[in-house]
Amino acid sequence: MNSATVRNLLVRGMLAGLAAGVLALVAAYLLGESSVDKAIAFEDAHSHEHEMEVVSRSLQSTAGLATGVLVYGVAFGGIAALAYCFALGRVGRFGPRATALLLSGCALLTVYVVPFLKYPANPPSVGDPDTIGKRTTLYFLMMLLSVLLAVAATIVGKRLAPSLGTWWATVVAVAAFAVVIGLAYAFLPAVDEVPKDFPAALLWRFRLSALAVQAVLWGGFGLLFGELAERLLKPAPAGAETGHAVPAAR
Amino acid sequence: MAQTVAPPTATTPAVPAKLPLREIAPWAVFFGILMLVLLYFVGAEQGATSVFNGTDVHEWVHDARHLLGFPCH
After folding, report:
1. ipTM of the predicted structure?
2. To 5 degrees, how large is the angle CA A166–CA A167–CA A170?
3. pLDDT tens across A179-225, in order?
4. Which residues cross the membrane (chain B) (predicted)?
5. pTM to 2 decimals?
6. Among residues 3-62 of chain B, which lie with CB inside 8 Å of chain A?
7. CA distances to A16, A29, A85, A119, B16 from A4, in Å
């Protein structure tokens, strides 16, 4: 084990992030774009001034969407791979593949679902342009808080494991995470800027599709990166440290 | 889970070796920051704050920003 392992994992994480980004892009295009188009139609019907189009809708919904989703996939793939280097062998009795899927699931939850439950994704025409600064700050704050708390909860869980046992240490750590996130939900300001006659069903469909995009991204990443990491790491420990025969792959 | 090391069988995969923290740190710092910059350009540039003038970046990633859950406008 040397720093080449870290580099190899990072490269694989970014590649797996790119591939997962392609899957997420397909999901976003098929599930989300119709809601975006309907929301823009609503916006056009309700606003008096007509803005000049800087980038055409057909480019925004294809090449623009692809740029954003793929860069997002690569960036989070890289960050997840680095987090994986820290987590590997430190979070419990999980092999390389299981650690990857566990990390992915936790990332989906802490990076997306937790901030989403307080500040959900909004389609065009939902949101007052004058409050973009405040909403952006709150969203990134919620994301940061959620990730830091998850890391803290993991460390606390590890510390408690020898005295409480793995099961109850995990329960306590997760409960502590939930309580603090609940306090953040309660005390951070609410954002409700949905226009009065905006169709509720459209808002719901848009938010569900945004959630589906993330589920596809992180699910795909966990499986792909897990497989790559398993293949990279499996031969090494066989002879080197443990001395045990590596069980056949399942 | 103090000293109870069960002999590995077909159902208990070996726990992978830890990577030393000092090996990870330089990669984590450099690439961590690089990845956060990428996320900033997808998620927030020319919205709340701007590095470049205009709205080209914002308009180009507009749909991605909405569907990835970032506040857009």
Report:
1. 0.88
2. 80
3. 999 999 999 999 999 998 999 999 999 999 999 999 999 999 999 99
4. 24-42
5. 0.89
6. 8-10, 12-21, 23-24, 26-28, 31-32, 34-36, 38-39, 41-44, 47-49, 55-56, 59-62
7. 18, 37, 12, 39, 16
Residue pair B58/B46 in contact by the 8 Å Cβ criterion: yes
φ, ψ at B45 (rounded to 5°): -60, 135
What HEC string does A131-153 produce?
HHHHHHHHHHHHHHHHHHHHHHH
Q: What is the rounded distance in angstroms from the CA atom of residue B73 to the CA atom of residue B70? A: 9
**What backbone torsions phi and psi does residue B49 show, to the nearest 5 degrees?**
-135, 160
Beta bridge partners of B45: B49
C-alpha count within 13 angstroms, C-beta hemisphere, residue A68:
31
Q: Mean pLDDT throughout B11-23?
A: 81
How close, in Å, is residue A209 to chain B by CA atoms? 8
Tell whether the torsion through CA atoms of A60, A64, A68 and A74 is positive or negative: positive
Cα–Cα distance between A121 and A128 in angstroms, integer? Answer: 14
> What are the structural domain ranges in chain A?
1-46+58-126+197-250, 127-193
